[in-house]
Hints:
Helix content is 69%, strand content 3%. The protein is mostly helical. The protein has a domain at 3-239. A two-stranded antiparallel ribbon has the order 1-2. A two-stranded antiparallel sheet has the order 3-4. Strand 3 and strand 4 form a beta hairpin. The mean pLDDT is 90.
Amino acid sequence: MNNSFIINNIILIHIILISFSFIIIFFKSEISNYLKIIDYPDNNLKIHKLPTPRLGGIILFFYILPSLLIHYKINHIGLKDLIVLIILSITFFIVGLIDDRKLLSATYKSIILITLLLLIVPISNELIIEQINFRYLDLSINLKKAAIYFTIFSIFALYNAFNFTDGVNCVASSLGIFWITFIFLKSDNYTNFYYQSILVSLIIIFYFNYINKFFLGNSGTSLLSIIISLILIQEYKKNNIFCDEIFFILFLPGIDMIRISVQRIMSGNSPFLGDTNHIHHLMRILIKEKFIFLPYLLIAVTPILIYSFLIKNFYLVFALSFAMYFLIYLFLNNLKKSN
């Protein structure tokens, strides 16, 4: 099977999947009403004005799942690893979809997903982080028996951090586009059909979220978080990406999650209690909602750009990124208090 034949077939499959995505979008009202996944602006935490379908996860799921099967067929990956990826992707998606419909409690979701990870992750050695290696830091940590638990903690932390980014149009989808683009560049494999599919589906979702046609939804953030987690682990184990690089591409959602959780606990509230104190919510004081993704993405990209091209010192870049985040937060928070 020659390369031109494979490329032509990949293009054809993309056309089919894009067409199917637009069919879903065309019938968005019917699908959303049937599944009861419409987001109503019915409390103080909602900033949109009109009922909006939470359709992004549906589009992502029906684009990504066939792509995953085709990708593994093309690359002759083991059946066991494929089954593990499918089970994790489907379960995270379904839990998110149920959450879109019924608003599951954070505790209940956490129990389901952590139990799933404890049962499924150990099946595949390809998904277990056994050693922590850095690109520009002379440090290597062998996790030994803690490897499985560290892997599960990392996946669950990314799941929570990414869910914290949802709430303002295009923030989560643009962050996903940044992550998969970075992975694309680091993997140096631009013909990877699976990565292409994630990028194309996110661009579609980004555009229609930008024009207020639908939200990514909990199903979308949950599915995308597990997809990105598994891809990062796979590329890390191939030595295409290192721990310090992963740390900096995830820095903004990670530090925002930690800051908000600490503030909630110090206030005597549950760390899972929703609010509008996220950095992207605070940006509404200065920026129109439809443009918030731009400064958010700029802040998210800055640490890895500095680390990759300017300062190859982990501790210094961490200190600069930390200072940048909290200076921006304090500035926005003071503006919020004065208004």
